[in-house]
Amino acid sequence: MSSFFNSIFRARKLWFCFLALSLSCLASDAAEHRLSFSKSGDLVITGTATVKGNAFSVGISSFVISSGNIGIGTTTPSEKLDVYNGNIQTNYGIKATTTAFNGVGYAWPSTRGAANTTLTEDGAGNLTWSAVGAPAGTIIMFASSNCPSGYLKTDGTLYSKTVYAGLYNAVGNIYGESGDSFNVPDLRGYFVRAYDDGRGLDSGRGFATVQQDEIKHHSHTARAHIGIGVSGGASVYPVATDSMTGNTGDNGGFETRPKNIAMQYCIKY
Fold first, then answer.
1. Residue 69 and residue 29 in one domain
2. Residue 9 domain-assigned?
3. 154, 176 Cβ separation under 8 angstroms
């Protein structure tokens, strides 16, 4: 019985040697190109192995190299790496400057985007990071006494420069600060007027400055003419005349304003 198993072992060893000899013939004559088996039975190739033909199979899966393209699950790869009817899984990521989806190529930014940003395209396939929705510092009017998500009331409150870094980078210390905090604008009870910015209609004031209420300079004049005469027959003979000037009196409310409705001003952070 032992001789039978020894014969099988020798035959198996001869077959492996024949396989190693056959594969080694596919390599060049360089001494470093070698084929061997480890004690655990693993096939070890030292150097470069050249496979005659374009494909080989492992189990029921095929791996094809054709015209410089690699195909997995397909024998006719049309791209540098063509995976048919399967997924590509990686534990780290795919590094690529340009990728294509459905044949459309996109050039990706070289760095990660900041918080609350999204990828936008310029129409030529170039992707850049842009703020989601309105940029930080945008002020809106809202039809509720509370502001929507992502916005703060413009009530002059102090906020952390680090927690609300996006808003702080947009407005800075224009509206005040205290240590590591900064103030948002306080628009409560105010009308907002567009910044003159050199036009000359509202000259002489800086950006974000408060302007008190005012009525343009003017005057009102009231006159009364008084005449005294003596009547004689069909005629009247004037004796004296006089005139009087005065003001129209104090009348009105506590401010000058148009009709209006109160809403909430909110600032994006």
1. no
2. yes
3. no
Angle, CA 199 vertex, CA 193 and CA 202 arms, to 5°: 45
176 and 266: one domain? yes
Please give the Cα distance from 150 to 66 (Å, whole number).
53
Exposed, middle or buried: residue 174 (CB in 10 Å: 0-12, 13-18, 19+)?
Answer: middle
Rounded CA-CA distance 14/42 in Å is: 16
Q: Is residue 91 part of a domain?
A: no
Q: Tell me if 60 sits within 8 A of 67, measured CB to CB.
A: no
Could you report the per-residue pLDDT of 140-176, keeping only the tens digit for each? 999 999 999 999 999 999 999 999 999 999 999 999 9
Kindly report, residue by residue over 227-254, the tens digit of the pLDDT: 666 555 565 556 556 666 666 667 788 8
Give Cα 110 to chain centroid, integer Å: 15
- pLDDT tens, 99-129? 777 778 888 888 888 877 888 888 888 999 8
226: in domain: no
How many domains is the chain partitioned into structurally? 3
